[in-house]
Structures are given as structure tokens and as C-alpha cells.
Write a structure and sequence with these properties.
The protein is built from ten helices and ten strands. By secondary structure, the chain is of the alpha/beta class. Strand 9 and strand 10 form a beta hairpin. Helix 3 runs parallel beside helix 6.
């Protein structure tokens, strides 16, 4: 793939006291890709996303579009074009659906027309949110809350979206819908780094994949090749 590198991770380590959650990993995500990170609980996947979005300190180097992110505040990282949909969704339950979406565009105060277009696009992509636009977000179903979390991230108009376990706790039907929407977002030009325990669905959707074990990258390569790798199939696909 000849597309430019959007995200470059170099020798990244994330530590919590004496515990190393991520151990010196390096990889690149290219423009337009869906890159999937798979692995067991505790492999370091969420810590990696949190480091990229400026939420935890790290050693090593992270570059976004060639710009070094080391020491950059989380709000500045959002303004550069990185959005993060965290595990557990992180919506504001005491605010309405509309208020949550509006907060997603907080840094775009001067782009009134663009925000309006993106708001309409989110509602088009997630009709259920349109039906519940004035409803308190804490009263939504799990699937609807996940849609809102993704929709809110879309409102910041980022070029790279970090998704942490988007199908967690969802029924198979809703998980399929979320993955279909992720594919639509990617087709609109957004590069996606996806952390997902459903390895089969993640690798089916992705262009590139990394298998993380104990904070390190055990395997990486084309997602289709990982799907056919006997080690991945035995450990993560149950076949």
C-alpha cells in the first residue's frame, strides 16, 4: 500500500509503576486504512490507544502526520485530528443526545456550516439517535450509547479515529450494525485504529492487523493473512 503514513509508533512503552503494560512496540498506520489490534484482556491494547490520545504518559515516540505528539495535551491532540471512542463509551449520561453531539464539535466554533452538515450526516448514519435526540443519554440502550459515542467522535471531524472495543456488550445484530457503520466512516476518508476482542470481525473488516500479547506485538501483517494464520486461528478464532 503506497498511502502516506498517518500514525507512526516507535519503541512505545507505557508503564504503571513497575508494571509495563506496553513494551517497546513499533508499527505504522497508513492513510485510509482500518488497522486492527487484537489480543486478550491485559495485552496492552487500551493503554496504547490512551497513549496516542494523550491520556497516559509514555516512553518512545508517537508521530501523527509527521508531527511528534510527545508532551502534547489531550485537547490539542483532538484539535490535530485524532478522536478517541473509549472502552465503556464515555458519554455524558446526564446530557441529551443532541448535547453530547454538540460537545463533540466543541473545537469547531467557527465552522458553523460544517458542523451543521456533520450533525445531519451523523443523524443520517444513526437514525436511532435522531429519534432520541432530546432524550437523556444515560437512558439509551447499550447499542445506542455506542452509536452516540461514535457519532460524537465524528463531530470533531478528525482524520484518525481510535475505537476501543466498540462491540463490547452488544448483541450480535447490533455488533454487525456497528461494524457496518465503522466501514462507512472509513469509506468517507477517516483512518481507523480499532481495538477489538472479536478478532474474527475485526480482521474481516481491517486492512492491517497486529496481535498483541503481554504488551508486545506477537504478529502483524495484512489482516487477511492473519485470518489464515494457524496461530491466530487457534488462539483467537477458536478454530
Amino acid at each position: 500500500m503506497n498511502e502516506a503514513v498517518v500514525l507512526s509508533i516507535r519503541n512505545l512503552t507505557v508503564s504503571y509503576g513497575t508494571i509495563k503494560a506496553v513494551r517497546g512496540i513499533s508499527f505504522d498506520v497508513r492513510q485510509g486504512q482500518i488497522a486492527a489490534l487484537i489480543g486478550a484482556n491485559g495485552a496492552g491494547k487500551s493503554s496504547l490507544l490512551q497513549a496516542i490520545s494523550g491520556m497516559v504518559p509514555f516512553d518512545g515516540e508517537i508521530y501523527f502526520k509527521g508531527k511528534k505528539l510527545n508532551g502534547t495535551r489531550a485537547d490539542k491532540i483532538v484539535s490535530l485530528g485524532i478522536t478517541h471512542v473509549p472502552e465503556g463509551r464515555g458519554i455524558f449520561g446526564s446530557l441529551t443526545v443532541k448535547e453530547n453531539l454538540t460537545l463533540g464539535a466543541w473545537l469547531r466554533k467557527k465552522d458553523i456550516e460544517g458542523v451543521k452538515r456533520d450533525y445531519e450526516h451523523v443523524i443520517e448514519l444513526f437514525p436511532r439517535l435522531g429519534q432520541r435526540i432530546g432524550q437523556l443519554s444515560g437512558t439509551l440502550s447499550g447499542g445506542e450509547q455506542q452509536m452516540l459515542a461514535i457519532g460524537r467522535a465524528m463531530m470533531s471531524k478528525g482524520d484518525l479515529m481510535l475505537l476501543d472495543e466498540p462491540s463490547m456488550g452488544l448483541s450480535p445484530v447490533l455488533a454487525d450494525e456497528i461494524f457496518r457503520i465503522i466501514e462507512e466512516i472509513n469509506k468517507s476518508g477517516v483512518t481507523i485504529l480499532l481495538v477489538e476482542q472479536n478478532a474474527f470481525m475485526a480482521l474481516q473488516l481491517a486492512d492491517y492487523g497486529c496481535v498483541m500479547e503481554n504488551g508486545e506485538i506477537a504478529l502483524e501483517g495484512a489482516a487477511a493473512a492473519l485470518l489464515d494464520d494457524p496461530r491466530v486461528r487457534q488462539a483467537y478464532l477458536g478454530v
